[in-house]
Structure prediction request, 649 residues.
Amino acid sequence: MKKKTGVFICHCGINIAGTVDVKKVAKELAKYPGVEHAEDYVYMCSDPGQNLIIQAIKDKKLDNVVVACCSPNLHETTFRNAAKRAGINSFRCEIANIREQCSWVHKDMSKATQKATKIIRSTVERVKKNEALDAISVPVTRRALVVGGGIAGIQASLDLANSGYEVILVERSPSIGGHMIQLSETFPTLDCSQCILTPKMVEVSKHPKIKLMTYSEVQEVTGYVGNFKIKILKKPTYVDPVKCNLCDECTKVCPIVVPNEFDMGLTGRRAIYIPFPQAIPASYTLDDKNCPDLVPIACGKCYDVCKVKAIDYDVKPQIVEEEVGVIILATGYDLYDKENMAEYGYGKYPDVLDGLQFERLLSASGPTMGKVLRPSDHQEPKEVVFIQCSGSRDPELHCAYCSKICCMYTAKHAMLYKHHVHDGQAYIFYIDIRSGGKGYEEFVQRAVEEDGVVFLRGKVSKIFEEKGKIKVWGVDTLSGKSIEIDADMVVLAQATRPSKGAPELAKKLKIALDKDGFLAEAHPKLRPVESVTPGVFLAGAAQAPKDIPEAVAQASGAAAKAIAILSQDRLYHSPTVAKVYRNLCTGCGMCVAVCPYEALTLKEGKVEVNEVLCEGCGTCAATCLRAAVQVKNLSANQVHEMIIASLGG
Ligand SMILES: Cc1cc2nc3c(=O)[nH]c(=O)nc-3n(C[C@H](O)[C@H](O)[C@H](O)COP(=O)(O)OP(=O)(O)OC[C@H]3O[C@@H](n4cnc5c(N)ncnc54)[C@H](O)[C@@H]3O)c2cc1C
Prediction:
């Protein structure tokens, strides 16, 4: 018996109907061989639209469905579910993309209409030969890996753990806390950053469901959603946290001083150190890159002074293997290298700082105990210039994008400076003020009205030192006047960049980066916390510049998405995967080499498919010269029929 196909053409408002004559297309398709029903509707994805499809399948006893609409990325699942509700196998429903691949890229209505007709015809030919497939199912390992222990990773871990799932939280530095723990007070409420973060850090360390692995890094990831296998490198701290009584005698005798990362280099630390007093875990780390005992010239002072014998130079790095069902990446950001900003004198003048250094000066736990003092002479600066967009919004020389948080934190810096130095004057050079957020605009207004901060709309052209002052030359584009300020200190709101090592991690997880190097989401609007790899989610500033409320919200979103997977007994994977015809396969291995998902392997001279890893991209099929590997429901035969159909007038 001949199979009956129904064709449903969506107007997508005017997205498609503005360029494609959808009524004409429906008429043409109604005449096409095998098409039993063709109709158009303004929004096929809406409830009435889906009901039209369901009703037609039932009334006309359709076997196959083609929905001509937007990209299958958006609504393939929607329409396949509708087909299933009407009683047909969901893999007998295919999408003809006449929006992204037709209406959006053409202007001429008659040509676009002709092209849309051809796209749909070829999809009709494809669906005619579709097999009724069943989804592949696999069990789920109900544990999660969170990478990055900043506020985003902390929030995601706590949400997962409080929902009853085991979490392994991997942080590469010796303590969790990320950049938020370095901040003084936080906009827009001016809460003390440590006061709101440290309780969460403690909660992480005490949570029975969270295994915290600091000073550790993910080394290898294999497997797939629901069943990832992870190798984690645990770097040695050389200090046994159980024996160590935090007496601090070791740091007193350590002869090595290196820049203190927590204070952004404004102070030094010893080679054996605790990152900051509230660090979690509260234990010492011996930094083997700087410790003489782990390089030829032996020292051994810390070992000798340690009464409880907590130090052991012979500890080796360890590889820990874990199995998890989902992964959340919360690797955060770094500031744009200041060395790139030679025009602003960074590195040359000690009183030109970046935003995080200024945070440390403002912080009660900082190098100056919260007093704003110049690094050069420890004097209170009376004129401070803040420069926004330092490295941001500068496609020619630096980063093209807006770093988003700088307008707000610079207003905060200027405000807090005035709270510390009442007779001081703060100037802010800005391009525009971007203060979108709850209470944000009011916060910026406060800086102007209550603290008398002078906002200068314009860019700084040059910074140089003269007679003990930092000369700042700029322009105020509102008055059209050149500006020259004799500053005591300059603070650069450096662009935010993806954290170092993010590209390598993305490679291990086979997830994409966006054009600026941040971790890319699967869809900017509809799947903002998912990566393109199923089961891998994104949280916080690793995806794009974000402030704390946004990072926290996204972390909770990522945790919710992860829980949606972990809460299932089995996971279902699309069955439209590669299939090997063993009699045709010569075992040449070309398909194995090109598979981007590492889903193919050679076994006893023939290729085998790991159906759960396979994403059905078809790269293997396109490579095989003998058509020995083909994608289910997109066979060589189907592709042939599709080409013929699209050639017709
Ligand atoms: C000067 C300045 C002031 C700011 N002030 C405010 C403010 O007042 N209010 C506000 O809302 N926001 C503020 N922010 C923004 C705030 O810092 C961020 O929103 C927040 O830190 C983002 O958190 P996160 O967890 O996404 O990233 P991060 O804080 O960067 O944390 C990421 C963590 O991941 C770890 N990591 C990175 N790579 C790896 C890896 N491969 N493996 C394991 N671990 C890894 C890092 O060591 C780090 O601990 C400010 C930012 C700056 C620069």
Observations:
- The pocket of flavin-adenine dinucleotide is lined by residues 147-153, 170-173, 178-180, 183, 186-187, 217, 330-333, 355-356, 359, 405, 409, 412, 499, 501, 505, 540-542, 546-549, 551 (CB under 6 Å).
